[in-house]
């Protein structure tokens, strides 16, 4: 026959943000570490090799931070003017940076002085990057040119002069077919394999998008903008799945290996570093000894003979503890078990009421037990979604424990608290009703006078009403 | 052509299975139960009905195996006859006429040629146990008038009488007494429970009794849930009893196992309790059997138990307390709130079943197909509890959606209301919960209807409520990148002057929605949800509302509480006609323009079939039932009938079923359902499977026989012996198939005419059979 049917726990609609895998993933960071830089942080770049240091370009300095250090490990400050675009090579050993005066400097991470200096650009170099073969550097500058430099000789190899405006952004191919380009408030995605076809154009920020970054899995795209938001998109649907808020306009954004750290540079020179929370630690208690492996495979490899009848053991349905209690009619125990989460408690109280045993479950409690129930009531009685059920339970408790009132100061205090709560709630309701009545009256006068001559009057009425709501 | 015969009301299925204890055959292969005027033989292995033994002309009240021949069965009935049956072939062997109403039947191994029956002599409430000597005679009908008195002042129910220790004594209980009659000593001892005299409202009345098969021990069940085991009762002074107490409500039935080592008890808790060695400690339970256990019986072989339940169900339980088979009839012990519906997929009748369930009942096979658990909560069977009731249900979009409403009202102000929407899952072949709406309205929901128009792209549901609103619910897509989901949301809320909304109905094409607000009918455009027009006749609240169909789709019909049936024309927005008719049930036929209305008067219920286009009814049948008719429904026929008479043409494409207040399901018919089977298929169905060749061998020939044959000669080519066999078989089957019960003959033709009519009918049927059917495939066997 049919088995025990577990109690259906009433689900209440969750207000606010929907909880999805993405919100869980992106919220799983510690509170940010704030580091003050000297100027606006224009670029943050992570090294791809352990220990995953990152270079922060701010004003005329480049700071290298370790993953967990709040002080820079190293500082390159040999710039005469503002430095731009400090970028690590793929192996994490070299760092290249452009600068306002048109120079490009190549540093060794371990050294202090620049290894190479590429002179050639006449105006500020805003973008520098290593090519995929590691031995060349590409740079774009405000003199409308893009140049390719050879590292060993520190010579200019090629110059592209097809640009007709400042080259501010560039990206060496890393075998990624899609290219993300920001422009104004739009993020545009182009498919390079199809000869530069526009895949999608995203407009989720209401100010200029300044930086883009792919998550380590490649499934999510992050964009930072001057509107102080970082948004996370799914790269399959290009829908926003999550967003972060920051204190100032965002200029740069970088994600560490495996999304372990999010580093955001802002216009006010603050670098915000968020580390992922470490996985919840396993219980330190020694694990109970499980049955040996062979117990689980016992009889599994037995081949069925011809005349054998296979009898399956009925699968055991997992029941919650309160369900197990209810199944065995241990009603008080079931109620005691669930006094923490109000949704479950209310469902259990409802179920007990349906079974006609709520009074039995509430009766016969000592001081400690009844004060637990009263505490729960005091916490949740005024919530409108639980009120109908809990008021009923409170009435039953009062009926049961009225004769013994005055015997325990603890319980008496709880009852007084409950009384105060109810009185306060009644006052609220009365006030709300009064306001509602006033509003009704105002609306009634408004609808009756529909002639345009009284428009002025109506407007003043509306104003009055607004004031009332505020008050 | 179907023979034109007078239309009559016939009872259709839904027979009761739990009236008396079931009886097992000696080898436990079959289980017998009384069912109205019939005895049904079920196979314990397959749950199928093997035979229906019919012959009694009134309620069958008791059955017992013949102790001398285990292949025979005795039965007694209110018509004063004891009949002896051969249940393996389903043949009546002998009839003994006793002549007075028989209430129960008992047999004993030692009592050679007599059986015991309960009769009432003078007063209506005084019953006697008498033994009837069954005379030996070769004739089919024998008078058995030789009654000898055994016990007086006993209870009518057979549960209150038990024979013990191989027929040495008989125990009977009534009120607060236990009487034991010893056959050898011919004395009666009477035991009273001492406490019963002192207390005014003592609850230890006896409810049932069972005797140990081997020892001198009597078990009695009581109203307060106690079971008492009596010993040493041959001495009126030294008798002792011990108490077993687990049940918290009255003990409905008790039974000892064959060896007497364990005692079975059951009651309202729907738990079968097995007491081992009559000890309080050794008990085993089989819980959650679904409904109150009414009877318990044990097979003579001792391997099976059978419990009969109040929800018209028998459960065959194995010795180790494992349910092995469930024989479920139409559940009828509760109020029907949902009305009768037809599942568009299975064509099954759908209505309230056991608590919190919707039952799907096959009208063709008189069998419950399945139960859909709507409320999905542990059912607590306790007296005085307010249960959640399933109040409304509706199918939509060709059976793809099912909407249900459940409610529970404890106090005036505390109403729990829930609406659930179920979608049909093709993979699992069942309904799956899609959306649950808590408190869809502030007050009771009065009606629920889907928009079933063919062109409607989006499923739409309308609910009306006593809170004065009607709500439109539509299916919306709220899938995102994480999951695909569709759910129902409220699209529009309408009201009309704060009147209670009582009924709603969509027009056939789905373009208009009619909602009745007490006395006013409002018409809404289903595209924009604008109020189009209103109709008001000032003739009481609207009770029923429906649109005309097909050619009559411009009409809207409404029946009011003051007994006025109104028909409005939607094109002219005016009243077309009205009639004075106190309509209880109004059902449109889905396949035609016809509308059936059942009116209620002091005399009984009358049926009117009419088309909205004209006020003159097509067909009137007076007095279809003496009781109030609660619900009705048209069931589309699989194969259309071809009544030529104009009066019966409304039954050509659909059949009309209705349910009376006492929960009997009735229909109109001119013939029994089994006659409708074509002779070929009937023959196939009635021939035992082991006699037939393999199905692959038969198939092509069988299919060919169903096709229109090119040469009509084939019928004559049948060898003689085959056709003889055929004839015999079909005659047999004609005899045994009349299981529809005639409730009343409404036509006033005199009897003589009727007989002649029938004769010619059967003859013609035979002729027809030979003319039509192509038997050539049989010759190949």
Automatic annotation (TrEMBL), chain A:
UniProt cross-references to SMART domains, sorted A to Z: WD40
Coiled-coil regions listed in the entry: none
Gene Ontology CC, one term: nucleolus
Biological process per Gene Ontology, one example term: positive regulation of transcription by RNA polymerase I
Keywords from the named record: Nucleus, Repeat, rRNA processing, WD repeat
Chain ranges of the U3 small nucleolar RNA-associated protein 15 C-terminal domain: 301-442
Keyword flag Repeat: yes
Entry-linked InterPro entries: U3_snoRNA-assocProt_15_C, WD40/YVTN_repeat-like_dom_sf, WD40_repeat_CS, WD40_repeat_dom_sf, WD40_rpt
WD repeats, residue ranges: 118-159, 202-243
CDD domains documented for this protein: WD40
Family matches, as SUPFAM superfamilies: WD40 repeat-like (SSF50978)
Pfam (any one): UTP15_C
Subcellular location as annotated: Nucleus, Nucleolus
Quaternary context: Part of the small subunit (SSU) processome, composed of more than 70 proteins and the RNA chaperone small nucleolar RNA (snoRNA) U3. May be a component of the proposed t-UTP subcomplex of the ribosomal small subunit (SSU) processome containing at least UTP4, WDR43, HEATR1, UTP15, WDR75. Interacts directly with UTP4 and WDR43.
Annotated function: Ribosome biogenesis factor. Involved in nucleolar processing of pre-18S ribosomal RNA. Required for optimal pre-ribosomal RNA transcription by RNA polymerase I. Part of the small subunit (SSU) processome, first precursor of the small eukaryotic ribosomal subunit. During the assembly of the SSU processome in the nucleolus, many ribosome biogenesis factors, an RNA chaperone and ribosomal proteins associate with the nascent pre-rRNA and work in concert to generate RNA folding, modifications, rearrangements and cleavage as well as targeted degradation of pre-ribosomal RNA by the RNA exosome.
PANTHER family registered for this protein in UniProt: U3 SMALL NUCLEOLAR RNA-ASSOCIATED PROTEIN 15 HOMOLOG (PTHR19924:SF26), UTP15 U3 SMALL NUCLEOLAR RNA-ASSOCIATED PROTEIN 15 FAMILY MEMBER (PTHR19924)
Protein name per Swiss-Prot or TrEMBL: U3 small nucleolar RNA-associated protein 15 homolog
Organism: Monodon monoceros (Narwhal)
TrEMBL record, chain B:
Gene Ontology MF terms: RNA binding
UniProt key word Nucleus: yes
UniProt GO BP: positive regulation of rRNA processing; positive regulation of transcription by RNA polymerase I; rRNA processing
WD repeats: from-to residues: 53-95
Chain spans, region Disordered: 716-752
Phosphoprotein found in the keyword field: yes
Biased composition (Acidic residues): 717-744
Domain WD repeat-containing protein 75 second beta-propeller: 340-663
Keywords, alphabetical: Isopeptide bond, Nucleus, Phosphoprotein, Repeat, Ribosome biogenesis, rRNA processing, Transcription, Transcription regulation, Ubl conjugation, WD repeat
Compartments it resides in: Nucleus, Nucleolus
Domain of life: Eukaryota
PANTHER family from the UniProt entry: WD REPEAT-CONTAINING PROTEIN 75
Function: Ribosome biogenesis factor. Part of the small subunit (SSU) processome, first precursor of the small eukaryotic ribosomal subunit. During the assembly of the SSU processome in the nucleolus, many ribosome biogenesis factors, an RNA chaperone and ribosomal proteins associate with the nascent pre-rRNA and work in concert to generate RNA folding, modifications, rearrangements and cleavage as well as targeted degradation of pre-ribosomal RNA by the RNA exosome. Involved in nucleolar processing of pre-18S ribosomal RNA. Required for optimal pre-ribosomal RNA transcription by RNA polymerase I.
Description of how the protein assembles with itself and partners: Component of the proposed t-UTP subcomplex of the ribosomal small subunit (SSU) processome. SSU processome is composed of more than 70 proteins and the RNA chaperone small nucleolar RNA (snoRNA) U3.
Protein name from the UniProt record: WD repeat-containing protein 75
Organism (species): Monodon monoceros (Narwhal)
């Amino acid at each position: 026959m049919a088995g025990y049917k577990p109690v259906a726990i009433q689900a209440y609609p969750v207000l606010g943000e929907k909880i999805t895998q993405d919100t869980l993933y992106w919220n799983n960071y510690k509170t940010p570490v704030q580091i003050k830089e000297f100027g606006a942080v224009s670029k943050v770049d992570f090294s791809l090799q352990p220990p995953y240091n990152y270079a922060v370009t701010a004003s005329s300095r480049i700071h290298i931070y370790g993953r967990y250090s709040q002080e820079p490990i190293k500082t390159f400050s040999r710039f005469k003017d503002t430095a731009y675009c400090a970028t690590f090579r793929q192996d994490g050993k070299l760092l290249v940076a452009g600068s306002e005066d048109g120079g490009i400097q190549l540093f060794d991470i371990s050294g202090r002085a620049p290894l190479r200096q590429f002179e050639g650009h006449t105006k500020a170099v805003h973008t520098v990057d290593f090519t995929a073969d590691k031995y060349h550097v590409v740079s774009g500058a405000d003199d409308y040119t893009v140049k390719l430099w050879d590292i060993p000789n520190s010579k200019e190899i090629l110059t592209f002069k097809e640009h007709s405006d400042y080259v501010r952004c560039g990206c060496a191919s890393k075998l990624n077919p899609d290219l993300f380009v920001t422009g104004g408030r739009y993020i545009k995605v182009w498919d390079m394999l199809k000869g530069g076809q526009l895949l999608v154009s995203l407009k989720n920020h209401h100010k200029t998008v300044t930086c883009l970054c792919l998550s380590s899995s490649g499934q999510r795209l992050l964009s930072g903008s001057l509107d102080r938001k970082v948004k996370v998109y799914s790269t399959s649907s290009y829908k926003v799945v999550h967003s972060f808020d920051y204190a100032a306009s965002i200029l740069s954004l970088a994600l560490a290996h495996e999304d372990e750290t999010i580093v955001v540079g802002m216009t006010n020179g603050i670098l915000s570093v968020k580390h992922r929370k470490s996985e919840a630690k396993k219980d330190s208690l020694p694990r109970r000894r499980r049955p040996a492996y062979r117990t689980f495979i016992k009889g599994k490899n037995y081949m069925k003979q011809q005349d054998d009848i296979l009898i399956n053991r009925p699968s055991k349905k997992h029941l919650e503890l309160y369900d197990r209690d209810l199944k065995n009619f241990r009603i008080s125990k079931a109620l005691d078990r669930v006094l923490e989460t109000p949704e479950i408690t209310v469902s259990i109280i409802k179920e007990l009421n349906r079974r006609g045993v709520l009074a039995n479950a509430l009766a016969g409690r000592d001081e400690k037990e009844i004060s637990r129930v009263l505490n729960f009531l005091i916490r949740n009685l005024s919530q409108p979604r639980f009120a109908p059920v809990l008021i009923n339970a409170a009435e039953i408790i009062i009926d049961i424990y009225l004769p013994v009132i005055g015997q325990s100061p603890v319980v008496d205090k709880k009852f007084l608290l409950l009384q105060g709560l109810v009185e306060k709630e009644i006052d609220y309701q009365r006030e709300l009703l009064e306001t509602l009545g006033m509003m009704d009256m105002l609306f009634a006068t408004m609808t009756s006078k529909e002639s345009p001559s009284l428009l002025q009057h109506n407007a003043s009425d509306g104003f009055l009403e607004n004031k009332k709501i505020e008050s | 052509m179907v023979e034109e015969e007078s239309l009559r009301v016939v009872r259709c299925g839904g027979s009761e299975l739990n009236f008396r204890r079931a009886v097992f055959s000696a080898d436990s292969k079959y289980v017998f139960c009384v069912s109205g005027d019939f005895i049904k033989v079920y196979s314990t292995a397959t749950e199928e009905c093997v035979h229906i033994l019919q012959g009694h002309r009134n309620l069958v009240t008791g059955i017992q195996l013949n102790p001398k021949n285990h292949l025979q069965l005795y039965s007694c009935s209110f018509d004063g006859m004891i009949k002896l049956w051969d249940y393996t072939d389903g043949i009546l062997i002998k009839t003994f006429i006793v002549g007075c109403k028989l209430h129960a039947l008992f047999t004993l191994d030692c009592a050679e040629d007599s059986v015991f029956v309960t009769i009432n002599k003078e007063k209506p409430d005084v019953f006697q146990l008498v033994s009837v000597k069954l005379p030996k005679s070769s004739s089919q009908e024998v008078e058995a008038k030789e009654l000898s008195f055994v016990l007086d002042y006993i209870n009518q129910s057979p549960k209150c009488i038990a024979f013990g220790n191989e027929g040495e004594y008989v125990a009977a209980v009534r009120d607060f007494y236990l009487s034991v009659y010893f056959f050898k000593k011919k004395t009666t001892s009477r035991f009273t429970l001492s406490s019963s005299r002192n207390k005014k409202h003592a609850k230890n009345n006896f409810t049932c009794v069972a005797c140990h098969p081997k020892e001198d021990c009597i078990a009695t069940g009581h109203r307060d849930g106690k079971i008492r085991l009596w010993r040493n009762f041959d001495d009126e002074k030294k008798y002792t009893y011990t108490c077993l107490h687990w049940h918290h409500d009255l003990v409905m039935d008790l039974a000892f196992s064959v060896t007497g080592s364990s005692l079975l008890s059951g009651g309202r808790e729907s738990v079968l309790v097995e007491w081992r060695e009559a000890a309080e400690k050794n008990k085993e339970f089989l819980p959650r059997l679904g409904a109150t256990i009414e009877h318990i019986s044990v097979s003579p072989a001792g391997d099976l138990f059978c419990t009969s339940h109040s929800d018209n169900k028998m459960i065959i339980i194995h010795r180790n307390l494992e349910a092995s088979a469930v024989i479920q009839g139409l559940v009828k012990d509760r109020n029907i709130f949902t009305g009768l519906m037809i599942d568009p997929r299975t064509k099954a009748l759908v209505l309230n079943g056991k608590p919190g369930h919707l039952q799907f009942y096959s009208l063709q096979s008189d069998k419950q197909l399945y139960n859909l658990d709507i409320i999905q909560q542990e059912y607590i069977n306790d007296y005085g509890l307010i249960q959640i009731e399933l109040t409304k249900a509706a199918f939509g979009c060709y059976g793809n959606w099912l909407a249900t409403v459940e409610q529970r009202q404890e106090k005036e102000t505390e109403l729990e209301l829930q609406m659930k929407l179920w979608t049909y899952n093709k993979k699992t072949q069942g309904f799956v919960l899609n959306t649950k709406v808590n408190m869809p309205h502030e007050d009771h929901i009065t009606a629920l209807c889907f928009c079933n128009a063919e062109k409607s792209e989006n499923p739409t549901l309308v609910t009306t409520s006593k809170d004065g609103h009607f709500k439109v619910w539509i299916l919306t897509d709220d899938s995102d990148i994480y999951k695909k989901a569709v759910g129902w949301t409220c699209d529009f809320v309408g009201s009309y002057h704060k009147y209670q909304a009582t009924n709603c109905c969509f027009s056939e094409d789905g373009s208009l929605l009619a909602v009745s607000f007490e006395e006013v009918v409002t018409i809404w455009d289903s595209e924009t949800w604008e109020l189009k027009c209103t109709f008001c006749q000032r003739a009481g609240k609207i009770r029923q509302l429906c649109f005309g169909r097909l050619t009559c789709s411009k009409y809207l019909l409404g029946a009011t509480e003051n007994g006025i049936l109104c028909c409005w024309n939607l094109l002219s927005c005016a009243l077309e006609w009205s009639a004075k008719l106190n309509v209880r049930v109004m059902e449109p036929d889905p396949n035609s323009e016809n509308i059936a209305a059942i009116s209620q008067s002091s005399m009984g219920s009358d049926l009117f079939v009419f088309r909205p286009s004209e006020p003159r009814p097509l067909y009137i049948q007076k007095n279809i039932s003496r009781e109030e008719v609660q619900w009705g429904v048209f069931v589309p026929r699989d194969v259309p009938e071809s009544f030529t008479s104009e009066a019966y043409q409304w039954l050509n494409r659909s059949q009309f079923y209705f349910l009376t207040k006492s929960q009997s399901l009735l229909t109109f018919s001119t013939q029994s359902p089994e006659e409708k089977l074509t002779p070929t298929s009937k023959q196939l169905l009635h021939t035992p499977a082991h006699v037939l060749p393999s199905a692959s061998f038969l198939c092509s020939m069988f299919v060919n026989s169903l096709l229109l044959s090119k040469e009509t000669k084939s019928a004559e080519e049948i060898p003689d012996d085959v056709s003889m066999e055929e004839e015999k078989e079909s005659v047999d089957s004609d005899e045994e198939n009349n299981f529809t019960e005639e409730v009343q003959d409404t036509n006033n033709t005199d009897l003589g005419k009727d007989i002649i009519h029938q004769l010619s009918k059967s003859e013609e049927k035979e002729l027809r059979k030979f003319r039509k059917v192509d038997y050539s495939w049989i010759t190949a066997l």
